[in-house]
Design brief:
The protein contains six helices and six strands, in the order H-E-H-E-H-H-E-E-H-E-H-E. It is of the alpha/beta class and 188 residues long. 28% of the residues are buried.
Amino acid sequence: MEAEPFAADITDPAQPAEVIARVEEKLGPIEVAVHAAAAGMSIRSASTREVDRSALDLPFALKVYSSIELSRALLPGMVARGSGALLFSSGASEANRQPYLANMGVALGAQRAYVRQLAAELDGTGVYVGLLAIGALIENSAVQQQVDAHPELIPAGLELPRIGNDELGARYWRMYTERDTVEVEIGF
C-alpha cells in the first residue's frame, strides 16, 4: 500500500478537487477516502440559543460542504470502476445533544443526512459510503490536548471517554471490508 501526505484546506471549495487530481496523477485512482475533518474547541457555541448563522459557517464548511465536494470529486471515477469507498467521521454532539457544541451538532446532523442519502443512492454501484460516529476524545488529538489543558471547556460532571487511533483505524477497516451498515458508533 502506498501512502503520501497531500495538504489541502477543505474549507476552500476548490482545494479538494485540486488535491484529488494531484493524488491520482501521482498514485493512481483513489480506492478509499476518509473524510475526518475536525475543529478545535475554539469554534464551539456557548449554547444552542446563541447559535447564529456565523456560528455555523466553519462547522458546515468542515463537515458538510467539504463532504459534498469530496464526494463530487471522487464518485464519478469510483462509480465508473464499480468500486471504492467514502468513509466519513462524525462526533457525539449530534447524537448526544450537547448544547455547548450545538453549532457542530447542527452541522453533524446535516452531514449524517447527506451521507445516509448518498449511501442509499449508491447502493448496488459497488461504491460503499459509511459514517463513523465517534463519541470519545481521540487520544493525542488537538482537541484532547485542549481539553486536558483547559478542563473548563467541558461542562462540569461530563466524563469523556478516550479512544486511540488504532481502534479507530480498525473500525474504519472493518467498515470498508464488511460494508454491512452505513452508520457505526464507537466510544458512546
